[in-house]
Recover the amino acids of this structure.
């Protein structure tokens, strides 16, 4: 899954901002786990029920085993390896696929859930982990051949929770939206359990439930590209902060940087004036999709798009490390 590697969405929580502020001085309870190739943390500020935390971690594991394109036996893996045949999947997978297709349609294919053959060829995660002496760079011919199978319109949601890819050589990757969708589902679960003050951190994909017990917001930071500190901060209440950038998964060869955000028309990494984009929105699903979309668009078109949206804010970081705010 795209953005399913460590710190893929690059928002960081500032440690000083996470101290409980209730009148009883109750510290939040938290649990950390590992899913989506990254560390995940859930903090509850108005509950001491550790079973709720455990269930959140279990839900993350459940969703990973449904949505991952690399875990054998997942819903997405089964669809990708069905040779064009219809596959029965869970209602959760149908819901996520429906959302993903809607964003592909809205962006006219700039966001494309069928980029899996291209991302698998680049294999950024595998190559970065292996740290070879020479990284593999796909050829123009290889990418051109695989690009003929990149078309979100080949994915069909049928009756009875069945999904079919019309092109047997096409494959799905939901990395541009999956963690946002999962964060929103976790928030729904927490609210159903009576939790009204919490923080969800899925490897930098931040979503807050309400505010702190004293009524204040959560101070969160936007990670400095290629660094470990915050380049900007923002106080948020009951909202999401998601980032995408060229510094999340990349390697360099012969003085050229290659990163994981790919152009759905060429198969090559996007090359523009941006280091990263952070989206602030109520929906983490939307934030996940929009952060990638706006990064691909670049500063001018990305800012124009954000300014046309209601209830969405953005921070763009250009290659000179200058910050550009939509608010």
């Amino acid at each position: 899954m795209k953005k399913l590697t460590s710190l893929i969405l690059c928002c960081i929580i500032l440690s000083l901002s996470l101290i409980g502020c209730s009148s009883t001085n109750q510290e939040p309870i938290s649990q950390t786990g590992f899913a989506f190739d990254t560390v995940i943390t859930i903090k509850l500020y108005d509950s001491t029920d550790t079973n709720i935390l455990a269930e959140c971690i279990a839900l993350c594991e459940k969703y990973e085993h449904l949505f991952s394109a690399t875990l054998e036996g997942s819903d997405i893996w089964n669809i990708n390896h069905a040779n064009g045949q219809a596959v029965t999947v869970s209602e959760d997978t149908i819901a996520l696929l429906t959302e993903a297709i809607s964003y592909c349609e809205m962006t006219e294919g700039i966001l494309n859930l069928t980029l899996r053959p291209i991302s698998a060829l680049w294999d950024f995660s595998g190559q970065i982990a292996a740290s070879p002496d020479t990284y593999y760079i796909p050829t123009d011919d290889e990418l051109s051949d695989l690009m003929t199978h990149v078309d979100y319109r080949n994915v069909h949601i049928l009756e009875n929770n069945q999904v079919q890819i019309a092109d047997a050589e096409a494959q799905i990757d939901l990395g541009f939206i999956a963690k946002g969708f999962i964060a929103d589902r976790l928030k729904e679960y927490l609210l159903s359990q009576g939790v009204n003050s919490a923080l969800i951190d899925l490897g930098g994909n931040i979503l807050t439930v309400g505010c702190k017990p004293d009524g204040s917001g959560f101070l969160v930071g936007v990670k400095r590209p290629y660094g470990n500190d915050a380049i900007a901060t923002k106080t948020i209440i009951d909202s999401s902060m998601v980032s995408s950038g060229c510094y999340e998964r990349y390697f360099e060869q012969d003085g050229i940087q290659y990163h994981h955000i790919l152009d759905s028309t060429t198969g090559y990494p996007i090359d523009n004036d941006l280091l990263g984009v952070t989206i602030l929105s109520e929906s983490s699903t939307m934030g996940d999709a929009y952060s990638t979309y706006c990064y691909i668009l670049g500063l001018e078109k990305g800012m124009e798009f954000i300014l046309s949206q209601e209830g969405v804010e953005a921070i763009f970081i250009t290659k000179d490390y200058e910050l550009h705010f939509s608010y």
Remarks:
- The first strand starts at residue 11 and ends at 13.
